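[step 3/7] fold_predict: job queued, chain A
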Amino acid sequence: MHNVSRGPGPKDRSTHRREAAPRGQSWGRLDDFVGGAADVFPSFDNVVLSHRQDEVADVLRHVEHATNAGQWAYGFIAYDAAAGLDQALPAVSPDAADVAGSALPLVWFGFAPPPLRSTELVARRSAYRAGPWSHHWTRSAYGTAFDHVKDTIAAGRTYQCNLTTTLTAPFAGDPLSFYADLAHAQSSRYCAYLEIDNHVIASASPELFFEWVGNTLRTKPMKGTAPRGRSAAHDRTLLRELLDSPKERAENIIIVDLLRNDLGKVAAVGSVRVAALLTPEAYPTVWQLTSEVTAEPLAETGLVAILRAMFPCGSVTGAPKAETMHIIQEVEARRRGIYCGAIGWVAPPSETVRARFNVAIRTAHIDLSRGTCEYGVGSGITWSSEAAAELAELRAKHQILANTHWAGEQQLAARH
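[step 4/7] structure written:
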């Protein structure tokens, strides 16, 4: 575990117009496109991080103690950190970049005063270029992985498996402007941006992992997807087909049951309840089915206990969680990294909202030192799934990248 002092940071924290720190200095922001609000962390006084699974829990305990003592923390937990919270989940062997410390950490949090709150959502700042995008899997390779997952369902190892792939593109220019385009294209509530060293995380997530408000934990799993229509009438037809689809409804209900079980590990007896089931939400490129599960945590329950019970969110694994994550490791040749992890903040006990984390979907990782951008997409595979339909869902989910392919290309080219 590394605890790094960043010094006092900028003295003037009085204006929300301080959007970015100098390159090399960590900073971040969150944008709520539904509520029309933003929280900005212009700098961090110090940070804590690790590239090792056996240190993940120690880092999160540090975050829990520091926030209980009055600090704010903002950061992320990568999907691949899971075994650091639960040894039943698959471990990931460190590679050379992990050992050298140049890879994206498994867990990273910065500590700061309260964020600067604003009604100014992120805006494009200067030129960048992202693209062209290439898929990690060919159609044939996806079909092979899909068939393997269906075999594991037939064998009774899983009921639902979230199968994902990665798109990669060269990147140059301003990462904040890329995030602005991504976030505006999705227009969701849980957008998040973070610059740390040579890494940038740009998330346009529409999904809440969990929110801790007073004595209530709330999670909103998102499972069940349909594309938006070409006209209002077509859009209504696609929504009705989504709501009536046994396969899409089953995807959601399976994960609701999983999250009820996860919350039950830290909840008072009888307090877990389904507050909403199969509610459609509209986004520019897709319809999504969401549900809401709430619980009252047991007395003295803290951040580490909550994450041990819930991480990673069941909507990005499948059910049962542990065995399905082992299947995912069998078929997905690449690490997921921040994709399918969680990004969010933790506040002191004096705040009404103690913590809020998104599920890191619709999320890109930019490696500035390599000039690359990675973006993950996935879908839930059940027994009734068909490969062609799942591929269509992946296309719908990465459609928001159409707004980021070449934004500012002419301006960028003029500078070189």
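[step 5/7] annotate
DSSP finds ten helices and 22 strands in the chain.
The first helix runs from residue 56 to 68.
exit 0
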